[in-house]
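Entry for the shared binder. Reason: the reviewer on the internal report wants the predicted structure included alongside the sequence.
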Amino acid sequence: MTEPKRVIGKIIKLSDDGWGFISSKEIPFTRIFFHWTSLNQDTSHFKELKRGDEVEFTPIEVDGKGWRAIKIDVLEPEPKPVEIEKDGNA
């Protein structure tokens, strides 16, 4: 049996009750539900999450309920490049 495909998405909604939604270009036009219990233990805690956080997860389709995200890892943001100003006096 092969491992289900992992996909990248962004958190678009968080509730105070421990659930939220993710969007992904790989599953277009769909809000993917997740529960705090689906976060991997070595990633951020639910209370640390914010809208726009990038995540990697395994999507599963639940009959009659739609897409769910499991085995969620929060990805570190890419460092922004530092612009070095050139001194015009050189």
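Summary line for the report: The domain at 7-74 is CATH 2.40.50.140 (OB fold (Dihydrolipoamide Acetyltransferase, E2P)).
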